[in-house]
Amino acid sequence: MKASYDVVIVGGAVIGSAVAYFLASNPDFNGSVLVVERDPTYRYASTSLSSSSIRVQFSNPINVKISQFGSAFIRDFARTMQVAGEAAPDLNFHQGGYLFLANTAEQEQTLRENHEVQRACGADVVLWGQEDLHRAFPHLNVDDIRLASYGQSGEGWFSNTGLMNGFKAKARELGVDYITDEVVAISRAGDRVTGVTLKSGASVQAGAVVNASGPRAALTARMAGLDVPVEPRKRTLFVFDCAKTPEGSATVNGGRLPLMIDPSGVFCRPEGRFFLSGAPPLEDPAVDWDDFEPRWTEFEDQIWPTLAERSPAFEAIKVVNQWAGHYDFNSLDHNLIVGRHPQVTNFVFANGYSGHGLQQGPAAGRGVAELLIYGAYRTLDLTEVGYERILEGRPFLEKAVI
């Protein structure tokens, strides 16, 4: 580790490592980059504990385009992230699609409005009525469904740690320094951050600081005298076995089932020979940064009854694994916050993904790198999700939130 770096990134999971990679791989950048990660095992990182999925079915064009880039990047990941002397990283991308179900007039209208946005962006998404839905996925009970939205390509699930480790390995090959330590203070001189102090006692000068610290984003921002409305919100995921699996019964996509989002918000998708499921909690307070105790009752009270009603195949199921992870939850509008602070311009936010960080990581990493190198976006314009709206209290709302 050197005494001074052009860019210091606080947090080395998927967002921080994506920023590091896009900086180091850009031929117009010849600076130095340090990534500070407090837990090199990533045991409790939001990246490691996520459901590892990507979708283009959003209501805002920028979110659709972010995921379209992410999907293309994931498909080409093995070639792009190849490290000399090592096997090409395989993210095992299963393009199973997302299936949103609507059973109220309001939900139906939302799907139709979202579909117009998605199709205008070139997304491969179709709307189905009951007949088409039943034909495609005959195991489902669809009598109450008014409309379904199905992603035919560009959506699915993949290896979460594979994405993170691929970014990290390639960034290191390109000259990025990674250290195991914790940022405990950020120094400022007027409207510029000047460096960081580490828990080990070391001080590092910084030309710019990137906040990529996930659910701890507010703690990092406060060290620089700034605020960001991000807090840890707990989400519990359950893996269950199925006495008679419906996987393979679909008449589309080679028989593979999608990630289905029930009108209630309960979701499930195939996970190897099992299924992965979750639900929006009935009560959703901020939790302690170290609270990873699963909410055990969500499966019995919410998930199982809903899935059993949606499909006879889900009546006889049993949990084989469960864990809780944290959303880095943006309490203003549940959308990512990417961009410079308008006054402290060498402090850059990459926070508040609210459960979408893994899929939005490639585009966010590229965008932050462009801001640092060029002072402006060169590809996707992420201005809409910048920090200015936080200061103004102006939500950038997304209707397709899971």
Automatic annotation (TrEMBL):
A single BP term in Gene Ontology: mitochondrial respiratory chain complex I assembly
Keyword list, A-Z: Membrane, Oxidoreductase, Transmembrane, Transmembrane helix
Residues passing through the membrane, by range: 7-24
One family name in Pfam for this protein: DAO
A molecular function (GO) term: oxidoreductase activity
Gene3D superfamilies attached to this UniProt entry: D-Amino Acid Oxidase, subunit A, domain 2 (3.30.9.10), FAD/NAD(P)-binding domain (3.50.50.60)
Domain FAD dependent oxidoreductase as annotated: residue spans: 6-371
One CC-aspect GO term: cytoplasm
Name used for this protein in its record: FAD-dependent oxidoreductase
